[in-house]
């Protein structure tokens, strides 16, 4: 008999009433939309003023093919771009590296040099289209490629807008695409925060991400707690660097998952805003309103999609997207029905985008901010989520911070335990997943996007041509200067910009940094 | 007393998504098997050498990135070269139907696609080890 717990295993009472919210003070804990502590949203007029940005994460094969998909998505009414890079790019390897075999273009677009970034963004006006880039360990390198393309388009850096994921801590915790050890990685992140505060006032140099933590199997509370504790770590490093909190905190952005447990998710977004506002004000003394407001992107839960009966995934995604919008997200990616199989095909991604458009224009959910605010159930869940997350944050504080917690394997093992408990509940049919452990039926085959195996060949050819065309002396000089800067205390961003301008490849730049910082290998635990 | 089945759970390629590998490793261990987990980013060479050193009967590969057609044939070839063809190879992850058939023709004992039950995987490994 399925129990009445949330998808994260939190007990739910049979009914909620005034007695469940007696400890809450509406003026203190909720406030007005657009007012501290922003529980009800960061804008008074919310989606009346501006809808969320519809931003489908996309990238596959070569930059040429991905550029064509971007133009298609923009023509179909998408309002921002979000770049998916392939695994070699995420790991700082060029397409011709031995480890890249079989991986080029499979999970995203392959970007080996400034030339590829120029192709990827060809015909996309960077002063008008905001770009989000999902890249972490080599984020600073890819960001400099983007900034140089803007320069070449004649767009001033003060005008470019978008988001760099650049959240290395959640890589050690959950997604595991890391290159360097935690401390030099944090130094690179801090370099980008410092550079951003000085040169790119409209760009978010980091997107502190719970998405991957949740996908790795965490509970909603763990997603929230580890993400905000990561945020605290970045703030502390930036303060240590000598930046003033209100100079960089307004550009910190967040990224959360939208799973299927509707109210638990809405509670998570509301608790996130309230907790962050209080932390920033009380722990760090932030004064600027923009430092206190937690802005976030949401992606629906990839891990909730099923291989069985894939058309049901449209419904899951719609419900999850409704939760994200009800929770006041600033931008949204809706997954496509075929994503348990492969990267999405054009038809599937169009349905996913249309799902957002239906929610935006047909449901009326956008008419008033925080439409479920005041529900006894939701307010109790919000308060409990906040309290449980705060308890985790204090525990990590006691360990000495997030890097120490990561080194001791704490968040990793908490997530692995939660993911095992969930799988056990599914196995025992305590939780029903439609089409998987209940209501099974014959699947209808769906069309799957095939990634051309020649993507690697084409990328390798371009690399060879680039290496023979560019000035090797300029590349060597820029890389030597970068290595020297990395060994010292200087901000690495100007040196990365110079290396990128000389068309040093991603692999060459990352190897230079590997020589200085070393590589990281986690201690595997099961 | 029967000697427990020894299984090497491996995560080849560049992908870091280890949720599935960890859940399987724990389920096999809870079922009484001796489980060795390689950790991330293993080449076929590293996996085969670990399998030899650890004297396992079964290798379980978790692959979600689409790189299986590059990784699995190389691994099977290495096992044959090292006279380890009796080690059973099981693959789990995002493997399309047509690739599943091709992998089985290469000698892979079974391919478990998303949604496969832990109980079914445990039973299968018991039956072939």
Output the keywords.
heterodimer; A: alpha/beta; TIM Barrel; 5-stranded parallel β-sheet; globular; B: 129 residues; Rossmann fold; 44% helix
Descriptive report:
The complex is a heterodimer of chains A (526) and B (129). With 526 residues, chain A is an alpha/beta fold. Chain A has one domain (18-427): Alpha-Beta Barrel (TIM Barrel), CATH 3.20.20. Chain A has 22 helices and 10 strands. Chain A has a 5-stranded parallel β-sheet with strand order 1-10-9-8-7. Chain A has a 5-stranded parallel β-sheet with strand order 2-3-4-5-6. In chain A, strand 4 (131-134), helix 6 and strand 5 form a beta-alpha-beta unit. In chain A, helix 6 (139-153) crosses helix 21. Chain B has a 5-stranded parallel β-sheet, with helices on both faces. Chain B is globular and about 40 Å long. By secondary structure, chain B is of the alpha/beta class. Chain B has 5 helices and 5 strands; from the N terminus they run E-H-E-H-E-H-E-H-E-H. Chain B has a single domain, classed as Rossmann fold (3-Layer(aba) Sandwich), CATH 3.40.50.280. The A-B interface holds A 87-88, 90-91, 93, 99-103, 106-107, 171, 175-178, 215-217, 303, 306-308, 340-342, 416, 419-420, 423, 427, 433, 436-437, 448, 451, 521-522, 524, 526 and B 9, 13-19, 22-23, 25-27, 29, 35, 37-41, 43, 65-67, 69-71, 94, 96, 113-115, 117-119.
Q: What ranges of chain B have pLDDT less than 50 throughout 5 or more consecutive residues?
A: none
CATH class category of chain B: Alpha Beta
Structural class based on helices, strands and sheet pairing of chain B: alpha/beta
Instruction: Let me know the average pLDDT of chain A.
Output: 96
Which two chains share the most extensive interface? A-B, 41 and 35 residues
Mean pLDDT of chain B: 95
Query: What name does CATH use for the topology of chain B?
Result: Rossmann fold
| Cα gyration radius of chain B (Å) | 13 Å
The helical percent of chain A reads: 40-55%
CATH architecture field of chain A? Alpha-Beta Barrel
Structural class of chain A: alpha/beta
């Amino acid at each position: 008999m399925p129990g009445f717990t949330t998808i994260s295993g939190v007990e739910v009472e049979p009914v909620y009433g005034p007695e469940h919210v007696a400890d809450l003070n509406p003026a203190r804990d909720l406030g007005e939309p657009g007012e501290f502590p922003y529980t009800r949203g960061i804008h008074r007029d919310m989606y009346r003023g501006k809808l969320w940005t519809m931003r489908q994460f996309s990238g596959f094969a070569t930059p040429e093919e991905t550029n064509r998909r971007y133009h298609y998505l923009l023509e179909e009414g998408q309002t921002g771009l979000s770049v998916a890079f392939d695994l070699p790019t995420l790991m700082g390897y060029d397409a011709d590296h031995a480890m890249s075999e079989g991986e080029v273009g499979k999970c995203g677009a392959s970007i080996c040099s400034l030339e590829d970034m120029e192709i990827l963004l060809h015909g996309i006006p960077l002063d008008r289209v905001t770009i989000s880039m999902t890249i972490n360990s080599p984020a600073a390198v890819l960001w400099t490629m983007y900034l140089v393309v803007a320069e070449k388009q004649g767009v001033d850096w003060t005008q470019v807008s978008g988001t760099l994921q650049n959240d290395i801590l959640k890589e050690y915790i959950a997604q595991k695409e890391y290159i360097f050890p935690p401390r030099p990685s944090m130094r690179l992140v801090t370099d980008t925060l410092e550079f951003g505060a000085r040169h790119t006032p409209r760009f978010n140099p980091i997107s502190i991400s719970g998405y991957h933590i949740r996908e790795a199997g965490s509970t909603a509370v763990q997603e929230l707690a580890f993400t905000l504790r990561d945020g605290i770590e970045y703030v502390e490093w930036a303060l240590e660097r000598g930046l003033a909190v209100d100079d960089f905190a307004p550009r910190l952005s967040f990224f959360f998952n939208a799973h299927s447990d509707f109210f638990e998710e809405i509670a998570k977004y509301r608790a996130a805003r309230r907790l962050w506002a209080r932390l920033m004000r009380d722990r760090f003394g932030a004064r600027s309103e923009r430092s206190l407001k937690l802005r976030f992107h949401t992606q629906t839960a990839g891990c909730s999609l099923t291989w069985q009966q894939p058309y049901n995934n449209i419904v899951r995604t719609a419900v999850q997207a409704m939760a994200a919008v009800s929770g006041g997200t600033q931008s949204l990616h809706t997954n496509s029905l075929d994503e348990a199989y492969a990267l999405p095909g054009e038809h599937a991604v169009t349905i996913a985008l249309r799902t957002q458009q239906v929610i935006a224009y047909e449901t009326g959910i956008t008419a008033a901010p925080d439409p479920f605010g005041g529900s006894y159930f939701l307010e109790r869940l919000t308060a409990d989520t906040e309290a449980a997350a705060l308890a985790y944050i204090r525990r990590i504080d006691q360990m000495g911070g997030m890097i120490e917690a990561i080194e001791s394997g704490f968040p990793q093992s908490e997530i692995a335990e939660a993911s095992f408990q969930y799988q056990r509940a599914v196995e025992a049919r305590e939780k029903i997943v439609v089409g998987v452990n209940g209501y099974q039926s014959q699947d209808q085959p769906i069309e799957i996007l095939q990634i051309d195996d020649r993507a690697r060949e084409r990328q390798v050819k371009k690399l060879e041509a680039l290496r023979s065309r560019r000035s090797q002396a300029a590349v060597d000089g820029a890389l030597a200067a970068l290595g020297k800067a990395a060994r010292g205390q200087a901000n690495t961003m100007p040196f990365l910009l110079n290396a990128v301008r000389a068309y040093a490849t991603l692999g060459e730049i990352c190897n230079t940094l590997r020589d200085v910082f070393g590589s990281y290998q986690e201690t595997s635990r099961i | 007393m029967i000697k427990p089945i020894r299984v090497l759970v491996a995560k080849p390629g560049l992908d870091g998504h280890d949720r599935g590998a960890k859940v399987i490793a724990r389920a096999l261990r809870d079922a009484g098997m001796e489980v060795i987990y390689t950790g991330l980013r293993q080449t076929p060479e590293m996996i085969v050498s670990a399998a030899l050193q650890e004297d396992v009967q079964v290798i379980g590969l978790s692959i979600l990135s689409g790189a299986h057609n590059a990784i699995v044939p190389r691994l099977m070839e290495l096992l044959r070269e090292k006279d380890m063809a009796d080690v059973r190879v099981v693959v789990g992850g995002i493997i399309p139907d047509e690739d599943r058939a091709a992998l089985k023709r290469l000698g892979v004992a079974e391919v478990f696609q998303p949604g496969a039950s832990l109980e079914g995987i445990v039973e299968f490994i018991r039956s072939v080890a």
